[in-house]
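During the no-cost extension, the postdoctoral fellow (Dr. R.K.) reprocessed legacy sequence entries with the updated structure-token encoder. One reprocessed record is reproduced below for audit purposes.
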Amino acid sequence: MVEPVGNHYVVARPVYSENLFNEEHEKLHRYHKTFWDHLKLYFRCSPQRVKKIALGLFPIVSWLPVYRFREWILSDIISGINTGLVAVLQGLAFALLVNIPPGYGLYAAFFPVLVYFIFGTSRHISVGPFPVLSLMVGGAVVRLVPDDIAGNGTSTNISTINEERVMVAASVTFLSGVFQLLLGILQFGFIVIYLSQSLISGFTTAAAIHVVVSQLKFMLQLPVPGFNKPFGIVYTLERVFSQITETNIADLVTSLVVLVIVFVVKEMNDRYKAKLPTPIPIELLVTVLAALISHFVNFEEKFNVAVVGKLEEGFQAPVAPDVGVLQNCIGDSISIAIVGFAVAFSVAKVYSIKHDYPVDGNQELVAFGLGNIVGGSFKGFASSTALSRSGVQESTGGKTQIAGIVSAVIVLIVILGIGFLLAPLQKSVLASLALGNLKGMLMQFKEVGILWRKDKYDCVIWVVTFLAAVFLGLDIGLATAVAFQLLTVVIRSQIPSCAVLVNVGRSNIYRNRKDYTDIYEPEGVKIFRCSSPIFFANIEFFREKLITAVGFNPLRVLRKRNKALRKIRKMLKKGELQVTPKGLICMANHTHESDEELDNNRIEELDQPTSMTDLPIQIDWGADLPPGITVPRVDIHSIILDFSAVSFLDFSAMRVLQKTLKEFVRIDIDIYIAGAHEGFLDKLERCAFFDEEIKPSMFFLTIHDAVLHILLKKDIASSPKLKLTKEKGSSNDYIIIPSNGLRSRECTVRLLSPV
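Re-encoded structure tokens follow.
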């Protein structure tokens, strides 16, 4: 019964052990589904299930029929036009990261959008090239088709290299799409949970550094080969600085001017976004202006700058992936598939929470997988979502993926009709536009200080991920970062937080002894908490911390007691000890005997429970013992283990825990376990954890139940005159006033049988 009294509450109930609680309150039997039950349910076929699968596989069927045409169409068109213009420029710019001709970036900005329109679940993300993925694809391209096979650099050789590189990029993209599709079909959308926010932040920041370094050769127009190997960034910088005197000044000046303009205007867009009806399309304005100046001033001939050149009009026939390439880029494709999905799903979740609609991780994998398969078949490269482009689509009023279709139409117009207008555009301008989109990623450096103050583990993960991705490359760096992150989880669970608890404020609240001053610790009782699952890797740590908390090793005490009993028996047999009403009296001078003599090669007997049935007197281990016999003093009589935070206990740990508890029981210390979760007791029973020494009655609902049980048990044992007033209508409920001072009011306590 709970009685509210102002802002206090008073609870009157019996002291419950787990067994007693289950006796008084009937527990419902629940059937727990087996693996085969889940398998049958998954493959069950019914009209409702077919409809659900169809709606899940084709989300467009759910939202398109309820599209609010009059309210949303204008916003989607405006948003789509803005997003499409940005997508065109980013497609051209990010193609440079892939080390293929810029025109192929338009295919990557077109086909995945069409596929995502049908299969995607997010209404606001803009699908297409992403700089990190482009760089990862470019790494595979450079590794399989290196620059040094260019020979004398004739146009024929360059054309051949470009064709091979396009084929490699398409094959890598196709295979990454296959991996994403398989993961989606197998319902592996949860894999994104293994990429923490700290890891993604550190990885994308490192990728931004790689993007900056990779674009230097376009900004300076230097013949720098790609290095897709550990410390490749160092080799790239070494090549750049060794040729720095050959820099094309026109490209350098153009790059710097474009960068400054883009950064300034983007900063204005961010600062005055509340006042601007739509962000200033600075990338579009700079591109048009740069192309016009380059065309009329004839930069290509006068200053020998590198330009985009003629873009192929229309689409090329779809191609099958190169089997040889597929065999050599499996690792790259897996990394691209996971990173692409993780980034896109993270952005999609942000917008889904903001606009209150669900996104399905498994369906997102299917959508991006099919998008990459189709895009790769048409010689595009890997797609995800660029943060800046998605921001444009959402901030300019985009409501649904109709905006995505409109943006695809803009890209289509460029591919089919006006691509030739971009021919005089300098590649250094595209490189600068690519760098202009990295501000958000580079600003993530500020997170290091914040993480260090909030969570040092996350900070270390960020730093290790960043350094590994920068110096080992994005593919090896990602694998290293994931492995290190999982290692930190193992370390944290292997070294759990343990504490000795005490009563705070004479109530039913128990907290860490080190944190409070108004505390009460029952005499002879230790309350020990472990805030972690207990398994094979941390059970020894748990045991060591428990021994440290109680102040003695129970096995050592047990062995010392058994050795003492051996010596007492031997001395009684020789007549060196005499039994008197006051205890044992030594009748001879003490002679020291070594432990080896006493053990007599029977060390295993020392670990057995002490037995005094053959002695004429019961030994009080807390009293003075005969000369020459020393046993460590034990000042506690009860230990309570708080298992409220122990989510699971594996079999290996269970064996060690059982052995440890038996060691305490054998030296006459009562063990209680409080707060164990549902099913914990059942698992222990299935694993034959209980026996004559370890019994189910040691389990209590709460720490306070266990403490009250101990205090009542000790009060009755030490105070025979303790007055017990039996309540009416109950054979086991008594009103008591204990002498320990923990409770200030009369309480109803249920007497329990000893453990």
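The chain has a mean pLDDT of 83. The chain is about 55% helix and 10% strand. The remaining legacy entries will be reprocessed before the final report is submitted.
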